[in-house]
Design brief:
Length: 185
Amino acid sequence: MMKVSRRALLKKIILKLNKVDDFSYIDEVYNTQTGFPEKRWVLMLPGAGCQWSKEHNGGCYMCGFKYQLRHNGNKSPKYLENKIRIAFSLGSYLVNVKYNKPKSLFIYNGGSYLNDKEIPKAVQIEIFQCVIEKYKSIKNILVESRPEFITPENIKDLKSVLCNNCNLSIGIGLECKSAILERII
């Protein structure tokens, strides 16, 4: 009988839950502010699926996340919350965040992190609290969102959890079907 490590077994479980390759990893990227490479933790959470994609004929033209992440839109909010919590916990365990000490965390969910219908507000805040309490090396958290969800209330809720030495960055996409116009912008 072949012995399987706990780490390998957990990875198999989470991959089956999410149907995603490499949902959590640590890599090294160049930091333009410091001029040095630094470690980054990338985590893809199983959200409810991009609301824009569901309601607008497939969503943004340039987005590839809609094909990578399994949409869980028909599941109950409690099921979704539990699945996100499991992915976050196992994701941090599998890449050994405490040992690798990444400086930043990029959270992707194949949609808008700040949209309560995709990632429930309580889970958004819980993830930030966990990062601040457990992973002191992380100084920047990046999430992506459509502009309509970037409200003063949403920013205030998340920033209230972060300590003064942990920044919140929010990425927004610019959709443009014209390559010429895209270069000009």
